[in-house]
TrEMBL record:
Organism phylogeny: Eukaryota, Fungi, Dikarya, Ascomycota, Pezizomycotina
Subcellular location as annotated: Cytoplasm
A GO biological process held by the record: proteasome-mediated ubiquitin-dependent protein catabolic process
Organism: Ophiocordyceps sinensis
Main location, first listed in the record: cytoplasm
UniProt record similarity statement: Belongs to the RMD5/GID2 family.
A Pfam entry, by short name: zf-RING_UBOX
UniProt name for this protein: GID complex catalytic subunit 2
Location of the RING-type domain: 53-94
Length: 108
């Protein structure tokens, strides 16, 4: 909680300035998917997301990315290939079955 509040207080002055600028242009910043600026944070507040596959217990990589199944569960690509029979698989966490083409690569 401390990190979130501190990062927010660091970002607030830039956000206020950006909001005022967008108001002058008669555009709302909420119409964009993301802000047009980055907030520089101290090294101690920068985190890199890590996903560990619940099946293989391995950290995902570029070569073995996280894959979201249609049911919403996420496993790494290698685990998905291991549990697949041909192009079909059954989710290791629920009764949902699917096709390999339905699994979607995700990035955290």
């Amino acid at each position: 909680m401390y990190v979130a509040v501190t990062a927010g207080s660091i970002a607030l002055p830039r956000l206020i300035k950006y909001t005022a600028y967008m108001r002058e242009k008669k555009t709302e910043w909420t119409t964009e998917n993301e802000l047009a600026f980055e907030t520089p944070l101290p090294e101690s507040m920068i985190y890199h997301p890590i996903f560990v596959c619940p099946v293989s217990k391995e950290q995902t990589t570029e070569q073995n990315p996280a894959m979201m199944l249609p049911c919403g569960h996420v496993v790494c690509r290698d685990s998905l290939h291991r549990i697949a029979k041909g192009s079909r698989y059954k989710c290791p966490y629920c009764p949902t079955e699917g096709h390999m083409k339905d699994a979607m690569r995700i990035t955290f």
